[in-house]
Amino acid sequence: MKFANLMSTGGEWLRGEGPHHQIVISSRVRLARNLKQRAFPGWAKKAERTSILELIKPRVEELPEMQDSFSELLQDLSALEKQVLVERHLISREHAAKSVGSAVIMNRRQTLSIMINEEDHLRMQSIRSGLQLKSAFKLVDKVDSALESKLDFAFDAKLGYLTACPTNVGTGMRASAMLHLPGLVLSEMINQVIQAVNKIGLAVRGLYGEGTEAMGNLFQISNQHTLGDKEDEIVSRLSKVIETIIEKEHDARQMLIQKKSNTLWDQIGRAYGVLTFAHAMTSKEALNLLSIMKLGIDLGAFPEDRRLPIDELFIETQPAHLQKSSQQKLNAEERDHLRAQIIRERLRVFPKPDITKLAKESENGSAPEPPTNE
Amino acid sequence: MLCDVCKCNDATVFLTQITEGKMQKVNLCDACSKEKGVQDPTGFALADLLLGIGAAEEIEKGASSQKCPMCGFTQADFKKTGRLGCSVCYVTFAEGLGSLLKAMHKGTEHVGKLPQRAHREVELDDRMRALNEDLQKAVAEENYESAAALRDQIKQLEHEKAV
Predict the structure, then answer these.
(1) Nearest Cα residue to A208 out of A49, A26, A333, A51
(2) Of A153, A166, A201, the CB nearest to B97
(3) Residues with Cβ < 8 Å from B133, sequence gap 6 or more?
(4) Is A243 part of the contact surface with chain B (CB cutoff 8 Å)?
(5) How far is Cα B117 from Cα A39, in angstroms, rounded to an integer?
(6) What would the pLDDT profile of B62-90 be if each residue is shown by its tens digit?
(7) Distance separating alpha carbons of residues B110 and B98, to the nearest angstrom
């Protein structure tokens, strides 16, 4: 499969159809595995990395899950193509920096992506839309079992699967979900939630993982420990925590509707206004405003059938996607103009925010209160 | 250029460390450089930044001149990169890694998935242990006939394990 085909098919998780999809954008589970008695990719010389790659790649390509797959050596991908894959969360930022001796293989639906010679010899990731951690784990676990029958993985009876970084040893598993939490951010309760989540051994990160900023009210929640718990325990505990956060987000939204409706409508109106009329927009501003539009759809201020165009803009306005679709390399200023133009065109037929539904809901609440100036 | 630690702010402190002839570069923002005490580069190690303060000291507790027999990785390398060289390093540096893993994780022992191969090894080990116990019991009871049968079974199992 060619890169162009990959671009044109959006990938399952981008369509946003899974359970709790209004709040949970995607669920991911990745497993780290290494071959026995071979140097880890960061320490191996180029020749060893290449020989490890040649050993693993055919085994991955022959998996039934990888029929009609996209398989590419990292040196054969342009910087822009790598960045597109990063923006779709199909490869890590670290992997995008790799060249000779590394590869990526993914299925057509883009639910399964396998990196060879990232930080570990194998990084297998399954990504699903909405809250589907269990099914994501099931898929990647199946692939792991199939590969393990053909490759000799480094495993220790006491420490489990051995990984380049000691933080991944044991299960080698990182399960994570991307959550859209504008309600908790607007009601200023997000820090409380983050602290509580951190306390129970889970990590909260920004859009592109470790060390990245939270933009567009998007947060990644994942397990921190990999040693001492079973995989299914980690997955079900994380799922439970996420379900609780979903409840908190709904509560925060109700609270905003009832107590801070003016602020809420102002935010939605401003997001609509700026996105409809701006002529220059950074990706950060776009994400933040699109997040409010998404909230507006969730709350009924915009019709439900406008959800897909907004969801698509989240990814299409990212720097690499923007340049890939325009078929040229653009500087930051040109990107900001093009981004604003694409958004304006998409919103041209977008109805104005309708707050009557919101107002009705605030009346239905326990404390019926007309919007007042706060 | 973004800070290597928080990856949010622009890096303002550019640090180059040369250890045993190998050059290592780190870019930090103002806040992170202060937090990590990089104002004084003499007492600073990359492993500390990546795995938290104290990581480099932890692994140093083992014999410091140790070198992994499989891949030639040393503790100085771990101090620099925060990553290990190969799976055998977990045995080579077991002593220092023990307390590091304890601080890092919930438990100290893997209780999750077993690869089929490992599964088979565990199973054979269990059977071997049971046979040896039976053999000792038979010898103690001077039941040489069953001891001989058990000895044959153990030989057979050893052969299976070697395959």
Answers:
(1) A26
(2) A166
(3) none
(4) no
(5) 21
(6) 445 688 999 999 988 998 889 999 999 99
(7) 13
